[in-house]
Amino acid sequence: MSLPLIAIPCCRRQPDQHALHQVGEKYILAGLEAAGCLPVLIPALGERLDLTDLIGRFDGLLLTGSPSNVEPHHYDGPAPPADNLTDPERDATTLPLIRAAVAAGIPILGICRGHQELNVALGGSLHQEVQEVPGRMDHRSDRTGTAEHKYRLVHPVTLTPGGLFERLAGTNAIDVNSLHGQGIDRPAKNLSIEATAPDGQIEAVRLEGADFVVGVQWHPEWQALENTFSIKLFEAFGAACARRAQARLDRQRAA
Predict the structure, then answer these.
(1) At what angle do helices 88-104 and 113-121 cross, to 10 degrees?
(2) Distance between CA 136 and CA 158 in Å, rounded?
């Protein structure tokens, strides 16, 4: 069987008069090398995309991080900070795509913004500035220095006893990187918490009853093949995508 196909929605940028649809290469390589899937980039075209057609073609959905944030009107949040960076075209693409993928039983792995999108798409809410929430630490990255410095492991997360992440890790805690300003406030219905930071911030979630619908607040795609837990996470995602691909192939043969 050929490699399972995973959709990776793009961010939309307009640095000048020409709009760009783009995805960081680290996500593409993690999907290929760590998950064993063939990534296909989906432009952020919102309602111009036929979701039914898309869902029928793919075996998984990988949602990336981004400097932009989900617009708060999608979860009835308050007005955002003045310097809030948005990407409404991505919101218009990913949020309905997540809901369609969940309904179709397609595996999902959401990373950073993707973790937040998963929660919002299913009815949850976000903290827009985690560092301003009483009792929470500053989860934003150090913007100085090298990429290796920014993506270094900076704090532990506690894994929920008996959860998927604890089973994958074989332990009750792992160390993660941290490069986010926003984070989950109210989890969506049926999203189980898989990991929390020392300050109580939700760092990973899983959709109950789904084969594999997971969000992580940190960045496992960064040097994924050099981190034991990242390898296991992407392998689990890839295995779920392979199961979906086989089921899709079986349906085609039976038609």
Answers:
(1) 60
(2) 15
